[in-house]
Amino acid sequence: MVSDASGEAPAQPVTGTGVTTRFLNAAWGVSLVAGILTLVLGIVLVAWPEATIKVVAVLFGLQLLILGVLRVVQAIIADDSGGTRVLFALLGVLSVLVGVLVLRHLLQTVVVLALLLGMFWLIGGIIEFVHAVGDTGSGSRGWGIALSLLTAGAGIVLLVWPGMTLLTLTVITGIWFITWGLIVTGMTLYLRFAH
């Protein structure tokens, strides 16, 4: 084994047969950027919850568009079953669709925004759960299950209480983005650099 200047063997990506492991190894930079951007967005939302709905809607819409493109790419490069690819493609299309709707109607009510985000997070959480449970070859199966349950839970909260104030919606979403960003960033770094 070749060592670097410090005498230690360089970190190698985790190998595995799961689509999440293969995707994060193949496009780890994109996953890392998505995780970090989501984390930063969450911090901004929690730090300045009085932001106007227009700014919050633009940030939500952009984040959904980025994640949608990421999921479509994941569906394209996955060499798993057709069902897994279809689920990721549907999640990507749904994410892009909700992102475009949010950006198109910036002055929509908080209730509509909460319902759109709630539906996206609930459906996305369910799809991620199905994928994580079936992804037996992945070193990140537990992380995937935890992330999917948190995503679905955040969606349920928004669907149960869609009339919450913008301040409450912003803080809840910010906390969720921080959690999601930390998990995705940690999972990406672990799968990329764990021995």
From TrEMBL:
The chain crosses the membrane at residues 26-48, 55-77, 83-103, 110-130, 142-161, 166-191. Keywords: Membrane, Transmembrane, Transmembrane helix. It comes from the Bacteria. GO terms for cellular component: plasma membrane. It holds the Pfam family DUF308. InterPro entries: Acid_resist_chaperone_HdeD (IPR052712), DUF308_memb (IPR005325). This is DUF308 domain-containing protein.
